[in-house]
Amino acid sequence: MKAFLKKEWMEWLRTGRLLVLLLVFTLFGIMNPALAKLTPWMMEALSESLAETGIAATGITVDAMVSWAQFYKNFPMGLVIFVLLCSGSFTGEYQRGTLIPVVAKGLSRWSILGAKAIFLFGAWTVLYFLCFGITYGYNGYFWDNGVAKNLFFAGACSWVFGIWVVAALVFFSAFAGSSAQVLLGTGGVALGMYLLGLFPRFHSLLPAKLMEGMALLQGAEEPSGYFGGLAAAAIMAALCVAAGGGCFGKRKL
User: Fold this and answer.
1) What pLDDT band is residue 235 in, cutting at 50, 70 and 90?
2) Cα 185 off chain centre by
């Protein structure tokens, strides 16, 4: 597994996937406070156009909450980009036949799936907290992060949601024949959970609840209301990896 983890690292470097994702998540981290900082200037520049339509643009107060609101708007986009770039992590190996020699030499299939899953979970964790940390640092420099309640708990909830999505990615990658099938399966599950969450009875018991970070920051929700979503995401992620291991063990390479 150690050798396969090193192989994954080298592949991410050679393909440029690591560099692209680092740039994307760094850009999102900088863009969140930058857009908040530029909001008063943009509104002032548009004030004359707005006045002609009958809208009066008065003085706008910007604080860290505006930047965090931008973070939670950009977070799903970052997750989508991560899934898009990682959807071929398994299927590319199937198509090139690169797993056959290592399996023939005795490397277990569980070690292969485990190494890929660990690398994907680790990459998502580093990239997510890189973006979160950059936004937090700039917000603390320009304003005060103290205006946001339950800030780190809300950040952890979003991270766990991403872990759940990556686990679904691992599950579909274990048996899908192409990256398009992986994307359809992962996106379909995420969409299904979102639609199911529209029913009040299930809303607080699904991973989609973890996306509502701004409600925590504004104090409209308490952390206890997210425990059901956290438990559901953790259990479903574990089941996805376990089921993916079973499917991968029976898959023809």
Assistant:
1) very high
2) 16
At 228, list the tokens. 């059901």
Q: What is the pLDDT of residue 127?
A: 97
Residue 235 tokens, joined: 């259990």
The predicted-structure confidence for 77-110, as pLDDT tens digits, reads as follows 999 999 999 998 888 888 888 888 888 888 788 8
Instruction: Identify the CA nearest to 68 among candidates 175, 216, 188.
Output: 216
Euclidean distance between CA atoms 39 and 84, whole angstroms: 31
Region of 219 (left: φ > 0; alpha: ψ -120 to 50; beta: rest) is left
Spatial separation of the C-alpha atoms in residues 231 and 171, rounded to whole Å: 19
With 0-12 CB in 10 A as exposed, 13-18 as middle and 19+ as buried, what is 18? middle
- Measured in whole angstroms, the distance separating CA 165 from the mean position of its chain's CA atoms is 7
pLDDT tier for residue 223 given thresholds of 50, 70 and 90: very high
| Separation CA 162–CA 233 (nearest Å) | 9
CA distance 127 to 79: 10
- pLDDT tens digits for range 130-181: 999 999 999 999 999 989 999 999 999 999 999 999 999 999 999 988 899 9
- Whether 200 has a pLDDT exceeding 80, the answer reads yes
Burial of 61 (0-12, 13-18, 19+ CB in 10 A): exposed
- Crossing angle for the helix pair 64-86 and 151-173, nearest 10 degrees? 10
DSSP label at 233? H
HSE, CB side, 13 Å, CA atoms: give it for residue 249: 10
